[in-house]
Amino acid sequence: MEAILASTSKPDYPAEICLVLSDNPKAAGLETARSANIEALAFDRKDYASRSEHEAAIMNAIDASKADIICLAGYMRILSADFTKAYEGRLINIHPSLLPKYKGLDTHQRALDAGDKEHGCTVHFVNSEMDGGKIIAQAKVAVLKDDTAERLADRVLIEEHKLYSNVIANLAKT
């Protein structure tokens, strides 16, 4: 979120952040957004009787914001088919692997364990399948002989920040 915020602060960037949401009231990004005068709301799952009520509250906030693109950044919940369908073609995510490889967690260690020569990140449209939506763009990173999961993750994160901001800009121009 902070990398997207940095991109949107450039005068020639074709998008702006109109709302930041989290399901974690203690998420650092909420305060970062508020410090930049961006509306930031938390929807703690514990405050809702069901998943559908929780998602309905989030959807109401998104709809009220009139956001054209909904970007997931560190949102670690699988969204329902109803949610993803409502924002089809507008809901995107970044994932730290070259999808369709290594959906889910621990992607860097999994790439190392498999002996992969390259790893990277993917921006994709979100659908009801975890990390299964249509791929928009990818960035590759070489896996080095002495890599650890942490070192590889650090290099991939640099590419994630660039790739996500570039994809958002391209989508905003269309």
Structure characterization notes:
- The chain is an alpha/beta fold and about 170 residues long.
- The chain has six helices and six strands.
- The chain has helices spanning about 1-10, 30-35, 50-65, 80-85, 105-115, 150-174; strands at about 20, 40, 70, 90-95, 120-125, 135-140.
- It has a four-stranded mixed β-sheet, with helices on one face. Strands 1-2 form a two-stranded parallel ribbon.
- Helix 1 packs parallel to helix 6 (about 150-174).
- It is globular, with a radius of gyration of 16 Å.
Question: By helix and strand content, what is the structural category?
Answer: alpha/beta
The CATH homologous superfamily is termed Formyl transferase, N-terminal domain
Oligomer: single chain
Strands, total number:
6
Order of helices and strands: HEHEHEHEHEEH
Query: What is the CATH class?
Result: Alpha Beta
Helix content: 25-40%
Fold-level CATH name: Rossmann fold
Average the pLDDT over all residues and give the rounded result: 97
Q: Sheet with the most strands?
A: 4 strands, mixed
CA-based shape: globular
Strand content: 15-25%
**Low-confidence sequence ranges:** none
Provide a count of the helices. 6
Please compute the radius of gyration using only Cα atoms. Answer: 16 Å
Distance between the termini: 22 Å
CATH architecture: 3-Layer(aba) Sandwich
Strand order of the largest sheet: 3-4-5-6
Number of domains: 1
